[in-house]
Amino acid sequence: MSETFKTAPLHDAPVPVMIAGIAILATRTLGVAMLFHELGFQEIASFVHRSAQAWDSTLIFIASQLLFCIELRCAFMLMRGANRGRWGYALTQAIVLSYMVVASLGWVYPEIFSISGENDAEIVHRVLLQKLPDLLVLILLFVPASSRQYFRP
After folding, report:
1. Which pairs from 66-72 meet CB under 8 Å and 24+ separation?
2. Could you tell me if residue 71 is left (phi over 0), alpha (psi between -120 and 50 degrees) or otherwise beta?
3. Distance of CA 45 to the CA centre of its chain
4. What is the pTM (predicted TM-score) of this model?
5. Which residue among 24, 32, 51, 125 has the highest number of C-beta atoms inside a 10 angstrom radius?
6. Whole-angstrom Cα distance, residue 26 to residue 145?
7. Which pLDDT value is given to residue 58?
8. Does the keyword Transmembrane apply (predicted)?
9. Residues 108, 81 contacting (CB under 8 angstroms)
10. What confidence score (pLDDT) does residue 8 get?
11. Which whole-number Å values give the CA distances from 138 to 68, 86, 128, 147, in the listed order?
12. What number of helices (H) and strands (E) belong to the chain?
C-alpha cells in the first residue's frame, strides 16, 4: 500500500481542468441534494410518477438521468486527461441547452424541463442564465492554453 502513495500520477491535470471537473461534480451533486431538500421525498416520487404516465415523458425523464450520469463520467474522464471527456461534456451541454430552449418555447411536448417567461426573449435569457455556470466550465476546459495542451494527444 505504501508503494501506491510513492508513485507519481501519470498526468498532472492543470488547475483549470481540475476546477472544471470539481465544478461539474459539485454542481450536479449539490443540485440533486438541493432538489431533494426543496421538494422532499413525496414530491420527488410524485414527479417520477407523473413522468411515467406517458411514453414521451418517461423517455425524456430517462434521458435526463442518463445525461446526468454521462456528465459525471465526463468529469472524471477529463480530470484523468481523456479528451473525449471534454467533448462529451460539451455535447451533453449542447443537448441540454437545445432541449431546454425548445421545450421552454413550447415547440416540443412534453415540457418536463422547461422555464416559463412572458415572451420568447425572456425565456431564452432565463435559460442562458441558468446554463451560465456550465458555460464557464466549458470556457475553463477549452480556452486556457494549459487546458488545450493537456488534452492534446
Report:
1. 67/92, 67/95, 67/96, 68/28, 68/32, 71/24, 71/28, 72/24, 72/25, 72/28
2. alpha
3. 22
4. 0.84
5. 24
6. 24
7. 87
8. yes
9. no
10. 52
11. 16, 8, 14, 11
12. 7, 0
